[in-house]
Amino acid sequence: MSDRLSWIQDELDALKAQGLFITIRTLSSPQGAWLEVDGRRVLNFCSNNYLGLANHPHLREAARRAIETHGVGPGAVRTIAGTMDLHLELERRLAAFKGVEAAISFQSGFNANLGAIPALVGKEDVIFSDELNHASIIDGCRLSRARIVRYRHNDIDDLRRVVRETEGYRRALLVTDGVFSMDGDIAPLDRLADVAEEHNLMLMVDDAHGEGVLGRGGRGIVDHFGLHGRVDVEVGTMSKAFGVMGGYVAGPRPVVDWLRQRGRPFLFSSAVTPADVAACIAAVDLLEESTELVDRLWENGRYFKAGMKQLGFDTGASETPITPVMLGEAPLAQRFSKRLFEEGVFATAIGFPTVPRGKARIRVMISAAHTTDDLDQALEVFEKVGKELAVV
User: Fold this and answer.
1) What pLDDT does residue 176 have?
2) Within 200-233, where are the H helices?
3) Residues in the chain, pLDDT under 70
4) 347: Cβ–Cβ under 8 A, 6 or more apart, which residues?
């Protein structure tokens, strides 16, 4: 490595010294309640596979059929020769599922935010953004070149204050996560909608962790609060509860039509593969047919969270099956995660910059695929490691 790159190794060494270096483990099995990780069979509490669909036979069969009928790759961006009938069918199904006029699909939820935000606002505009919004929202805001005004997390009074104090803009966008992925709390979207209407702000919610979790049969946070028609832009992902890959924006038809003209990831990056699109459609099928998986997810979340609290763990402000185990300092969180893995539980440490310094944690991701026996086994291991490391 040349001298001009030596600073990189110095930074890596500093991360290791602070307990912030991310070690990436390797899976050799499909996603599920149990995984083969680094050659070991372990209980899985890391994945966003909320409904256990990532290896569902209905989705696998749909993907296989799509490869036979549509091939492996799209071969082009959507606007040239990459739009297949499967893409249009998924967008129709998502719009119906969400109860909106139209939807547009992207390669990921991250790309959906990068495409939507800069298309809606520019350098003459302002964005009011929750201080804990996801990195994809932050990056989308930066790319827009709009003025970014942050308000305290889920604090409506502070939002009203910054809106009152902000002047001299053309258009304004209020944007928030629906479910905050690190803490598991829910945005007060009903009150945010009130503020948006009072001040003529466009309202956008990224419901990546609410899709398939909140609302009737997993229809998301807008359905959860009964806000249909009051939220201008809904961003979602197909890579979490839906178990596949891809993202989308749903809302009024003019918004979707505009993103087809100005959403840069849509315009300049190849379309999602046929197999992924077909599997996404199959996931929508399952959610429309039954609420069983969503109901089981919530039952598992309540069961595990109650057990952790009884053991004396701090699970933060979570209102969803996401269960943060608050530990404070990153080195402790990494030691805790390492011991969990040694005891057969895969649950990774989360530290800075993903969460603020001093708020490191183990983020436990509950799935409908877990059985009660799985949850009991995990609780036993958490208790053992928690006592060993003097956390409980």
Assistant:
1) 98
2) 221-225
3) none
4) 45, 46, 325, 337, 340, 341, 362, 363, 364
pTM of the model: 0.94
In the block, residue with structure tokens 């046929």: 274
Among 136, 130, 96, which Cα is nearest to 116's? 136
DSSP H or E run through 323: strand 322-328
Task: Give the integer Cα–Cα distance in Å for 128 and 177.
Answer: 12
Q: Which residues have a Cβ under 8 Å from the Cβ of 382 and sit 6 or more positions away?
A: 308, 311, 313, 325, 340, 345
Alpha helix stretches (DSSP H) within the chain = 6-17, 57-70, 85-98, 109-120, 135-144, 156-165, 189-199, 221-225, 253-262, 264-268, 274-289, 292-311, 330-342, 372-388
Q: Which of 105, 108, 144, 181 is catalytic?
A: 181
| pLDDT computed for residue 177 by the predictor | 98
* Tokens of residue 148, six digits: 């970014």
pLDDT computed for residue 2 by the predictor: 84
Helix (H, G, I), strand (E, B) or coil at 229: coil
pLDDT in the model for residue 20: 80
| Residue 271 DSSP one-character state | P
Is residue 181 part of the annotated active site? The answer reads yes
Closest alpha carbon to 203 in 187, 186, 217:
187
Look-up: residue for tokens 């839906």? 242
Catalytic residue among 134, 240, 359, 370: 240
Handedness of CA 302, 303, 306, 308 (dihedral sign): negative
Look at phi and psi of residue 228 and say left if phi exceeds 0, alpha if psi is from -120 to 50, else beta.
beta
Q: How far apart are CA 253 and CA 269, in angstroms?
A: 22
Question: What does the alpha-carbon distance between residue 63 and residue 195 come to, in Å, rounded to a whole number?
Answer: 43
Determine the angle formed by the axes of helices 109-120 and 253-262, rounding to 10 degrees. 100
- In contact, 370 and 300? CB cutoff 8 Å: yes
* pLDDT the model gives residue 180: 97
User: What residue ranges define each of the domains in the chain, with the CATH number in brackets?
Assistant: 20-50+291-388 (3.90.1150.10), 58-289 (3.40.640.10)
DSSP classification of residue 4: G
Question: Which residues, in sequence order, are CB contacts of 7 under 8 Å at separation 6+?
Answer: none
Q: Which is catalytic among the residues 209, 224, 305, 370?
A: 209
Do residues 116 and 249 make contact, with C-beta atoms less than 8 angstroms apart?
Answer: yes
Active site residue 359: no
